Structures are given as C-alpha cells and as structure tokens.
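Folding Problem: From Residues to Backbone Shape
Fields: amino acid sequence; protein backbone structure tokens
RECORD BEGINS BELOW THIS LINE
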Amino acid sequence: MNDLTTQAQAQAQADDGLRQAWASAHAAEAQAADAAAQARDTGTRGPDDRDERAGGSVVLPAVLAVLLVPVALFFGGLAPMATDSCGPDHCSRALDQALSDVVHGLYATFAGTPALLLTAGALPRRMRYATARRLTAWSALLPPAFVILRVLALPQ
C-alpha cells in the first residue's frame, strides 16, 4: 500500500510539474500576443505594412473627377463663344492665349486625369506608398479644375 501511495504522489508531482510548464509556456505566448495587440493599437506601422485605407484614398478623388470632368468639358466647349463679339481674327492676344490654355487643359483632362487615377490605384498597398497614392490621386483633379477656373477668368 505504501508503494501505491508513493507512486501516486510521484505521479501527482509529475502532473503538477507538467501543468506548471504548460501554464508558463502559455503565459509567455499570451504575453507575446498582448504585446503584438498593443503594438497594433498604438498605430506603430512600418513602411512595409499593408495599408488598410489604400482604396479610400483613391475613391474620393475618383468621384470628384467624375463630377468635375463633365463640368470642365461643358465650360471648355463654351469657351470659344467668347470670340463671338470680336470675331476669330480681331480678338486680343490675351483671349487667344487663354483659349489655347483651355484647349491644352482639356487635353490634359482627357489624358492625365484617368492616367493619374489608374496610377494611384495601381500603386502597391503598402504604407510606404500611401503619400504617393494620395498625391497622385488628388493631382488628377488639377486639369479639370484648371479648365474650369481658366474659363471663368477669360479676359475680354
């Protein structure tokens, strides 16, 4: 009987040792998981981390471009009517230059705006490219905005 109790005590001690080893191993894993979660919560992100908001930085400029391009096309199409009062041969040099600027702005609108938006959407979804993506997407709005503002400021 004494032999059985000694074996039971030895088995209990071995089980306690295994439980303690298991608990300490899982405590280290839990601490590592907590540290990783805390690092994510503090917002410390490296340049090679995935940018979760990459799509959103392109969507708003794209929607604004869809709204601005037709307005720029409408204004650019009406701009030659500014020569009705003076005729095409007797207009001032400033008006001719402004109309030339409008035409070149329309070319840039048709070629540059889609190219810039596609480039912004095609950049890798990494934090390293977040600023380049935003700048490229928002710069796509410059050509239509230029056309609209240039038409609104046509000289006499």
Observations:
- The chain has a mean pLDDT of 85.
- The two ends are 117 Å apart (CA to CA).
- Helices lie at 2-42, 56-78, 93-122, 130-139, 142-152.
